[in-house]
Amino acid sequence: MVTFVVRVWLPDRPGALGQVASRIGAVHGDVVGIDILERGGGSAIDELTVNLPNAGLVDLLVSEIRQVDGVAVEDVRPVSPDRPDGSLAALTTAAAIVAAPLDQRLQVACESLRTLLDADWAVAMCMDGPSAVAHDGAVPELEWLAAFLAGSEHLGDQMDHTPGDLVWCRLPRRGVALACGRAGRVLHARERDEFRLLGGIADSMH
To answer: What does CATH list as the number for 86-204?
Structure first.
């Protein structure tokens, strides 16, 4: 068996998820996890963890899911079969941050949040200059990122003025901004909420 995460847009109506699950079963797939990432405007965005007999069935799987009226597939990606479900993954990240020694906590936060969000990079930056206190992955140019974050904050609610592939928050006690990004896949409401809450945990632990 191989395991994939399938991110789908569904009409927010009774039975829609059941129809998708039925299509997955038609290609001998097994839904082993469901995470609701966002809901609103008559639609829901769900992330389904699916076991398949072999990777060659992915194209057929996507084709079958798209047969359900009003359903779109945003993304399909392979994952480890022991990948925890969404709630457990967030708790695992929180536990790693809390358990880290104080002088390593921001580095652990970057590494853990990048893993949680399946992101390309994460960084903790000083508020008073474009320098990284901790980072993981291929971080964008710090001068650009610092200017962007400062401009977003000036506009008010930074989350309303941040592109879909980037999420960030201030850690005022530590004097840093924590940011994370990934190319090609939007960060949805649940992921953004988890990031802000876990950033608050990293900021509050002394």
So the answer is: 3.30.450.40
